[in-house]
């Protein structure tokens, strides 16, 4: 009888969960239940309280009030170890990997003592193939793209056979094909009895996967619904408290002179397992958005490093910015030519985690904008940072906080705003809306389109095809370090892009120049 009662209860229930940080109430009396074999979505804009809530469930932080019931029994989850012992696994949006260790070693150290390196290696191939998340066990993590790192996190969690799997933005760096394969895996896991708490800003995939969704806004539950019964726009409006419109093109883009010219760029891999670049031709004209699509790990990071000057080319004429040959110049020299750059990894690469927003602004702008005395004054940097915060709706916990204290979406808005506020002649941005909510994504995309409308050249490297089809004027696809010819966005179909991403077409002729 007890077993029957237990089996009729939800797998996990959160009752009146609150978490207070001083005057900030991050979670306010939240109730949430997850049924057995259910894929349940947790939705909300950045800063709504989602991360705090799931960290409480996973034992990372303690609630200030409330109760957690596991199969009807009150439990106290004091650590991730205790969470895993209950059967809870979590894949975080931000990676927790050791850079110098291999894929197999990273997975092994996160598992219990009975998981040896040999056992992990034996299981890794089967798990990777089953889930469509290819991994090479002997590759060092520092050589991997963000997409490949995300795969480690997912596989590492699934090896533990969790009863509740928490996924935080799991498809943010996956291709549509990889995402569909993952969806099939999650459906199978749910059918086999695993419950899934699914956090995503991609509302169409939520509508595809989930039968129930709980929406948070300002730390409170504002509704629980069947996402299939609402449109993505209606769900987004509940998340942000207002209607989320589409990106407006405004004045049609009228491309003018070349702001970026890449002519026959080839570059060896930066590491043993990195991706070489082969005879890249690329151009971006003032007044247009150029999109670069591709599967993670096919040379996007290497191309960004070459364009930004983090890895100079061997000849000046290979890269030309604003009419100047600069292939052998570094990032500061390219900034002085009017270029700006936003890398994929926002915390650590685009922003120093322990530096304040004003200090990060100072570092970024110093090469291009100096005061009469030869440097930017910190007071001016603070005022500029405040302008970015206001203009790009950056939600901050305090005045001029450290970068690490911002949520992922708010930090992304700040980093992109920090570069756009300079009104650069050329902006190159890698994965501009990775892991950000619908409202923030719209703001960022609109800012990129507006920048091009004002006469800048904008190059967007993205794995989000919806994003590229929405904002790009021309697009190319990168595969194994080779770039297809640029085409007008109207000449592309999703099928054609997919084939290019898989390398199944022959459009990489060296003689083709844009």
Automatic annotation (TrEMBL):
Keywords: ATP-binding, Nucleotide-binding. The keyword Secreted does not apply. It holds the Pfam family ABC_tran. One of its GO terms (molecular function) is ATP binding. Residues 12-243, 260-505 form the ABC transporter domain. The keyword Ribonucleoprotein does not apply. InterPro entries: AAA+_ATPase, ABC_carbohydrate_import_ATPase, ABC_transporter-like_ATP-bd, ABC_transporter-like_CS, P-loop_NTPase. Belongs to the ABC transporter superfamily. This is ATP-binding cassette domain-containing protein.
